[in-house]
Design a protein that fits this description.
Pfam families: DUF2336 (PF10098). InterPro entries: DUF2336. This is DUF2336 domain-containing protein. The chain is mostly helical and 351 residues long. The protein has 23 helices and no strands. The chain is elongated and about 75 Å long.
Length: 351
């Protein structure tokens, strides 16, 4: 009697191991070669007429590459990261395909953005059309060209420039550090990374000294021991009242506060905002820091400097305004207002 045939179930698919992952690109390359070989068979369809060729976009990807990218787009993010990392150096992958992969969310395309061979023109395109997270990844690319360094400096700060300053192999020129020093005058978040940069010189430190707080001033004097510290005999409130408005920069106002000239700081702030400096001073004697936040927003002083400015005012004003962490939370949304709206609200509060 014949024995019934043994039914064999198909083998379970083993999880993708290291060797399988390593061979993924090899498999893709083999498929690519096979696709190109098929396209060279003599019995292939007749050539596309010249008019049709002219109508086809020059940047079109071949069928295989398009299929690969479309498949990756539909994959889970973990799979996307793994496959993109393996495709970074694939010699058969055209730049147009790399750009499409770079346009995926930055959390999956980061490796491609930081390491893939891409022209400066392609990177310019990504800097101008993708998110801040994409820009940060590009700012961390090894050996970033000086043209790209300059382009990143001109982007809205701050996180992208901080990533650039921490890129040890980016090709900076002296004027680039000078440009970043000017940005750092009004944006405190950049100062720490800038001070640590190897191209930051004593001349840069002298220009920046007027804008930094006590901690960064100590860092500057530690790096440049013979650096002169600004004295407390800076411009008085009366002298500030006689200055031209064009001379009352935010950097000068912050310097006045750094060297202990609270009255001069408030006089300059009042003049720039066309407000009564005495009313500004009274507003700082209560239990709210909202008027300070509105003043800084109206002047365009970066929110990152708020904590330092508040601490300096309290030190010079008998620990007033007496605020808690809850007051900080109330003041935080103020920095999202446009400067003109912040000034209007400040005028309303001060009457």
């Amino acid at each position: 009697m014949a024995q019934p045939a043994v039914k064999s179930s198909p083998p379970e698919r083993a999880p993708l191991g290291g060797r399988d992952r390593d061979s993924y690109v090899s498999l893709l390359e083999a498929l690519k070669t096979a696709t190109q070989t098929v396209s060279r068979i003599p019995d292939a369809p007749a050539p596309v007429p010249p008019t049709a060729r002219e109508a086809r976009p020059s940047g079109d990807l071949d069928h295989f590459t398009r299929l690969l990218i479309d498949t990756l787009r539909k994959s889970e993010s973990r799979e996307q990261r793994a496959r993109i990392a393996q495709l970074i150096d694939a010699p058969w992958l055209p730049e147009a395909a790399r750009l499409e992969l770079c346009a995926l969310p930055a959390e999956v395309s980061q490796a491609m953005l930081q390491q893939a061979p891409l022209s400066d023109a392609a990177l310019f395109n990504l800097l101008n059309n993708q998110s801040e997270a994409h820009q940060i990844a590009i700012a961390r690319r090894p050996g970033l060209s000086n043209n790209l360094v300059k382009a990143i400096i001109n982007l809205p700060p701050y996180l992208v420039q901080m990533a650039l300053l921490n890129n040890a192999s980016a090709r900076f020129e002296p004027e680039d550090i000078q440009s970043l020093c000017q940005l750092a005058q009004g944006h405190a978040a950049l100062r720490g990374a800038l001070i640590r940069h190897p191209l930051f010189t004593e001349a840069h430190a002298k220009a920046l000294m007027a804008s930094v707080g006590p901690a960064l001033r100590d860092a500057l004097t530690a790096r440049f021991p013979y650096l002169a510290v600004p004295t407390a005999t800076a411009t008085s409130a009366q002298a500030v009242a006689e200055l031209k408005l064009s001379s009352l920069t935010n950097g000068l106002l912050l310097n006045l506060l750094n060297v202990g000239q609270l009255d001069a700081f408030l006089e300059g702030m009042g003049r720039k905002l066309n407000l009564n400096s005495a009313k500004l001073r009274d507003s700082l004697n209560g239990q709210s820091c909202v008027t300070l936040a509105l003043s800084m927003t109206a002047l365009g002083i970066d929110r990152a400097a708020f904590g330092t400015v508040l601490e300096q005012i309290q030190r010079l004003n008998n620990q007033r305004p007496k605020v808690t962490s809850a007051h900080h939370l109330l003041a935080r949304p103020v920095f999202d207002l446009p400067p003109a709206m912040a000034r209007e609200k400040l005028q309303a509060i001060l009457g």
